[in-house]
TrEMBL record:
Native organism taxonomy: Eukaryota, Metazoa, Chordata, Craniata, Vertebrata
Stored InterPro entries: Ig-like_dom, Ig-like_dom_sf, Ig-like_fold, Ig_C1-set, MHC/Immunoglobulin, MHC_I/II-like_Ag-recog, MHC_II_a/b_N, MHC_II_a_N
Keywords assigned by UniProt, alphabetized: Disulfide bond, Glycoprotein, Membrane, Signal, Transmembrane, Transmembrane helix
Topology in membrane: Single-pass type I membrane protein
PROSITE patterns per UniProt: IG_LIKE (PS50835)
Organism: Maylandia zebra
Annotated signal peptide: 1-24
Glycoprotein is among the record's keywords: yes
Transmembrane segment boundaries: 213-238
Matching Pfam families: C1-set, MHC_II_alpha
Protein's name in the database: HLA class II histocompatibility antigen, DR alpha chain-like
Superkingdom, natural source: Eukaryota
Single GO BP term: immune response
Keyword Cell inner membrane: no
């Protein structure tokens, strides 16, 4: 087992520390993140690349983002621990600011933004649009959505997930029902970007056209012509027999 302590102290923005534990046989790896800024904070625990739980400091509770059928277990005192970690983080941030004054602020713009759907697109069938943002530092990014040029609300975003290289990933999700002709976009704002990075999702271009009536009409016509042929054949067969 080895532990790596990654600490990046920034003059202005975020103080984040990640403890990454990888078991010797590398069967599983878990990660715990404590982060804070003047206005924001994060506590997250992940296992094998997935968020297991995170602290929601507005709702004042731990959130277990698994589907409801999963038994995620409960961890008494976990939220209180997260709150205590925030105190430590903020104290460290103040200290780091004092000590490292004029230390240049490191900023990496997102290296990739991708937009895609969770499920294969069927017109009129509920689906999710995903905006996947990775490779940025510091966290977080803001993601906003539009539908046909109009702002839409109701999207959700996960807490920043640390990558191995010290940058972060965030995934924003929007409920939508694909309709022919609709165009969606997700716009990503980050400290290192002068203007938002925007990705377009065109339902028309991406949608699988519903098989619809085409094949059944084709099949029906074919069957009818075939049966007519059989009927005509039978007719002439009987007629032929009558004449002889
Ligand atoms: C994200 O949005 C908040 C609230 O509107 C704003 O204060 C913050 O500056 C934004 N962050 C970035 C990186 O643009």
């Amino acid at each position: 087992e080895w532990k790596e302590l990654l600490m990046k102290m920034k003059e202005l923005l975020l103080f984040l520390s990640c403890v990454l534990c990888v078991f010797a046989d590398a069967l599983h790896s878990d990660i715990s993140t404590v982060g804070c800024s003047d206005s924001d904070g994060e506590y997250m625990y992940g296992l094998d690349g997935e968020e297991k739980w995170y602290a929601d400091f507005n709702k004042k509770e731990m959130i277990y983002p698994q589907p409801p059928f999963m038994d995620h277990g409960t961890y008494p005192g976990a939220y209180e621990q997260a709150v205590a970690n925030q105190q430590v983080c903020k104290t460290n941030l103040q200290t780091a600011r004092k000590v490292m004054k004029d230390f240049p602020l490191e900023q990496d713009a997102p290296s990739a933004v991708m937009i895609y759907t969770r499920d294969e697109v069927e017109f009129g069938e509920k689906n999710y649009l995903i905006c996947y943002v990775t490779g940025f530092y510091p966290a977080p990014v803001n993601v906003s959505w539009t539908k046909n040029g109009q702002k839409v609300t109701g999207s959700s975003i996960n807490v920043p997930y640390p990558n191995k290289d010290g940058t972060f990933t965030q995934i924003s999700r929007l409920d939508f029902t694909p309709q022919q002709g609709d165009v969606y976009s997700c716009a990503v704002q980050h400290l290192a970007l002068t203007e938002p990075l925007t990705k377009i999702y065109d339902v028309q271009a991406s949608g699988q056209s519903d098989p619809g009536v085409g094949p059944s009409v084709f099949c029906g016509v074919g069957l009818t012509v075939g049966l007519l042929g059989v009927a005509a054949g039978t007719f002439f067969l009987i007629k032929g027999n009558e004449c002889s």
